[in-house]
Amino acid sequence: MSEPLSKIPVGMKYYFGSQARLRRDVEDLAMAVFRGWSYEEIVTPTIDYYALFERGMGRSQAHRAFRFTDTDGRLLALRPDITSSVARAAATLFAERARPLRFCYAATVFHQRPRSHAEWRRETTHLGCELIGARGVNADLEVLLIAAEILRRLGLAGDYRITLNDVEVFNGVAENLKLDETAREHLRQLIDARNASELREFLAPYAPAEDCIAFAQLTRLAGKSEMFDRARHLIVNERSRRALENLEALWRALEALGLADSFEIDLGDVSELDYYTGLVFRIYVRGLGVRVGNGGRYDGLTANFGRAEPAIGFIFDLDSLTDVLWRRRGAQDAGDGGARLRDEDRIALFRSALRLREADERVLIEF
Amino acid sequence: MEREELTKLTIALAKGRMQEEAQRLLLRAGIELDETLNGSRRLTAYDRRGRYRLVFVKPADVPVYVEHGIADCGIVGRDVLMEAEADVLQPLDLGINRCRIAVAAKGPDDVTRNLGMLRVATKYPRIAAAHFGRRGIPVEIIELAGSVELAPVLGLSDCIVDLVETGRTLAENGLQVVEVIAESTGRLVANRASYQLKAEAMAELIAALGRASEREG
């Protein structure tokens, strides 16, 4: 028995009408901002070796990809991210180019398994940029300002929040507790879920009672500059302390640039530790229950492709952005305004159409 | 949408077993529901000061509403969260409705005798599969919607994985707890985006509920 053709696979959707126009406008706007910051567009292969993504994203993330085999039996994947491919290009194709490299893209990625129930799409478009070969607060600041500019130009100023963390804060704590890999992952999950009570129980065998309570506070350490003083009292190991200093320097700069209102420090954001090596951030917009973007520093990634160098980048999820803007703005008419053309004489009809098009006027041929 | 502007947070409450204790806890936290709610079939209510909108949904739907951000936070049992594998924050253990998720059978032998393929009846297929998976025991999960205790009695399964509060229902059916998988209590869960975008209101609610649940404990 054949399946009805009316059915669409789970996690796929059409865009049309004013929603499609909005989506296109958002994409164009983001790409223009990237260009404004001297980022060069890069188009990566839609299909690539699965091994690339396994190396680039880590096994647990790469596993979500659609996979199939090439004619020679090697495993291929529909790209589940763009960054892996850009990092490989930076280490190989652009090995000789002067640093830093600045790349941007607007490209679809595919996941056979969605990340969560609320993020159900299996095809999404990433608007992203990567700054490769630059380290330090200035590089971190550059990409944060790009993200903020895109949100502002989308009319979302005051309605977005970017949370900042440095994964080294967590890594320092975990290292200090001398956790094995399983325990470290469990600790990460508890902090990520802000589960303070289970975190205290989990830590009990590893640390004195007062330390447990202090670490459990990690889940609550969110806020603005006042947060740093509290954090410094609770977290004393060297590795975490250095990370806190970096974060604070970044924060001072954001404050000085008048952006502190839109940012927040959140030491509990430890979602993707295997991938990121320093700053991580997540972007939320009022009106949507899931993040619209995220990014961070991934200094370890390009080493996988033979050349270790610092790198930072982020993506906006175009579909989520379109969703939230669409809900806020409501449907908007494209307006007609175009010339409606009708003529019995075929040549006369199309001659006038061509003339109007030459002047960049919108035409509508009537039938 | 306009009402949402006035209201700081929407809270999803699990109907049924937990609802009464959750509402008592809310009351101790100074969140008093508009009286018109009592006995009515309305599915939403506001607190007296209009700060919170409460929606009453089935327990399994609480993480769904919260994960999508339709509710900013929710009150639901840990059992439901473990089963749903929902991507939500769990900032507070409220300590209400304390019970256990356990393996129960007619006797301990029923779980060890049939190691070739253990038949497990449950409302919690994921928790059951994960539990026996960790122990390397192959299982056939038989998913039931209710009255799970009947399954071993009638021979549908060797054991059950279910929520045990007092153990009375088990005893009445000639079953006993053979292994505790996890303790479960009512949890405050929060949407990731709301936790950041409505940070102040969220911190206020967490602090109030935290104080109220400590007084209880």
Structure in words:
- The complex is a heterodimer of chains A (367) and B (217).
- In chain A, helix 2 (50-57) packs across helix 4 (83-91), helix 6 runs antiparallel to helix 11 (238-256) and helix 8 packs antiparallel against helix 9.
- The longest helix of chain A has 20 residues, at 17-36.
- Chain A is α+β, with helices and mostly antiparallel strands and 367 residues long.
- Chain A is globular, with a radius of gyration of 24 Å.
- Chain A has helices spanning 17-36, 50-57, 59-62, 83-91, 137-153, 167-177, 181-192, 196-203, 209-216, 226-234, 238-256, 318-329, 346-358; strands at 40-41, 47-49, 67-69, 75-78, 101-110, 123-132, 160-166, 222-223, 263-266, 279-285, 293-297, 311-317, 339-341, 363-365.
- The model of chain A has no long low-confidence stretch (mean pLDDT 91).
- In chain A, strand 10 (279-285) and strand 11 (293-297) form a beta hairpin.
- Chain A has a nine-stranded mixed sheet, sandwiched between helices. In chain A, strands 2-4-3 form a three-stranded antiparallel sheet.
- Chain B has a six-stranded mixed sheet with strand order 2-3-1-4-11-5. In chain B, strands 8-7-9-6-10 form a five-stranded mixed sheet.
- The radius of gyration of chain B is 19 Å and the shape is elongated.
How would you summarize what this structure contains?
Chain B: Keywords: Amino-acid biosynthesis, ATP-binding, Cytoplasm, Glycosyltransferase, Histidine biosynthesis, Nucleotide-binding, Transferase. The complex is a heterodimer of chains A (367) and B (217). Chain A contains 13 helices and 14 strands.
